[in-house]
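haha ok so turns out i had the wrong file open the whole time. this is the CORRECT one, sorry everyone. sequence first:
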Amino acid sequence: MNPAEDTPAPTVRAAGCVLWRRAPRAPGLELCLVHRPKYDDWSHPKGKLHPGEDALAGALREVAEETGYAAVPGTELTTVRYPVDGRPKEVRYWAAEAGRGAFVPNNEVDRILWLSVDEARRRLTEARDQELVDELMRAIRTHVAEW
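then structure:
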């Protein structure tokens, strides 16, 4: 028996935000979704943490890198766990209001969309990301005065 074969693969640690803003032309909120051409999917901005990087700092860095927007973090949302290429992945998420910024396409994200909550829920590729939208809305109803 080879002990190395019995050792579980290390967990991939990542972080991101469910990025929102007040809709500029109508009442309500808009959510920012990113399109990743490598996977041809729509998701919330997120990415792998650098070694030793604090999860919240990594989430804010990833939002800036992927969307071009600064983010003001709010409530921490559910940590999502799922397998990727035979390894466990753990993504910590925060609700975050968009600050100043402008999107510039890059090799990881070629497009972003600002969508209404319902439109964002429909556009998201993964059900786990849709669930984060529902959690964000509950958090906003509960905590928006604190932000």
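The mean pLDDT is 92.
again sry for the mixup
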